Amino acid sequence: MNISPRQLRMFLALSESLNFSKTAEQMLMTQPSLSKAIRDLEEALGLSLFERTTRSVRLTPGGARMATLARSIVGEFDTGLRRMQSSAEREALQLSVACWPSLAYGVLPEVCAALERRFDAPQITVHDCANSACIQRLLNHQADFALASVAPSHPDLASQDLLRDRFVLLASGKWRKQVRPRMRLDELLALPLITLTDASTAMRYMSAAYLQRGIEYRPKMQVDQVATVAGLVKKEVGVAVLPYLGVTPILGMRGMQMSEIVDGPLRSVGIVTRRMGNPSALARAAMQEVIAVSRILMGKYPEWILPPSARKR
């Protein structure tokens, strides 16, 4: 049985007006089209719904009972549509972003504040995790986009470069006397270096920089969280090697001293999206805000945060 909600609405309208001409006008259709739709409905039901004469139209007893049932069906259908619309509106205000913890601190607060001003109570979820986890969440459709780094040749993902940040050295206490404002990679090898684990871009970039010099990068300690790095540096266990955006949460700690690694690598940050699919209006707005905040950071800290490279991905 192939009966559409519109057919039922035509039937109900005609059952109330009992006039084909008025009903056709009400339904914005021609009278022949209405007549055909009613005949098709009667054939589908195997039941005569109206008695027609040259002077009048009236419901059959079976048609009257079908009208009562049709009102219930149409009512339930309309209620379901309203629930679906309400759910769609809530869904349109859902945003999930995967990003490095340093970006969750340095970029996303301004982005979230801007979205709060532009949208009515957006529901934002932030997955602050290592680069590989960010990419996996995006591939698993657990995030609308990621602030991370991805290989240019990835078949399912596209990346728009945002900025690059320099690597710096963070020292405290006795180690402040061992470092200068400007240090070189070779000079770091004599220091007790603390950095993030192999899952981080910080470790990946530094390892690559030393590998180009034929040196294996072997820091004294590796941890998962920047807060742990801060605690270790504060207790003078060693000195931290991190990208600039990674140290911004702890720069305000008393006794911290930051030094530039003049020949260190530049870490690239990008907006990573799935090649297939259409981002929601909220996700598109969020990405626009990320770009705006990145430009502000580059203008505010030009010595540490640089424009993206010319390479397109």
TrEMBL record:
Domain HTH lysR-type: 1-60
Pfam families listed in its UniProt record: HTH_1, LysR_substrate
PROSITE patterns: HTH_LYSR
This protein's UniProt keywords: DNA-binding, Transcription, Transcription regulation
Gene Ontology terms: cellular component: cytosol
Coiled coil regions in record: none
One term of GO molecular function: DNA binding
Family (UniProt): Belongs to the LysR transcriptional regulatory family.
Protein name: LysR family transcriptional regulator
